[in-house]
Amino acid sequence: MEAVIDYEYLSGAHGEEVVKELSVASYNVLEKFRILIPYPMDAHGSTEDGLNWHDANIDYAALFQTVNEATANFAHLYSKDNAKSKFLSSLLGRKIQNLDTFCWPSRKSFRTSTSCSMPCHRVPDKSCEARNAHSHYGWLT
Length: 141
Hints:
Blueprint: E1 2-11, E2 17-26, E3 29-34, H1 63-71, E4 76-79, H2 82-92, E5 97-98, H3 129-140
Parallel strand pairs: 1-4, 4-5
Antiparallel strand pairs: 1-2, 2-3
């Protein structure tokens, strides 16, 4: 069995990418995780996408355990984007195949019925890791 992982991130205090939301999609499964602020810093939010550090329920320290448990039963894992595939491979200690190697179509060419509970993700052209993971899985299969 295979699954697709996608995530959105915010910039950390030192400009690093810090995972904010992560989704795992497979056959009849869509798991969504919202990650809390990893260390004390000024409140972060974006007027463009509405993400905020306080909109979460999983400690950042539990990111590995959460993603590892969500993907443990899948033999093949995929992600879109070379940087995301490398990050997830490093996080999980296993190969995450980059979907870009399959001549992947653009995100805008996908249509999905998956919805998201975050108000910022109801905008059709905004990137949402839940919609992305679900539509990428659909294309993959």
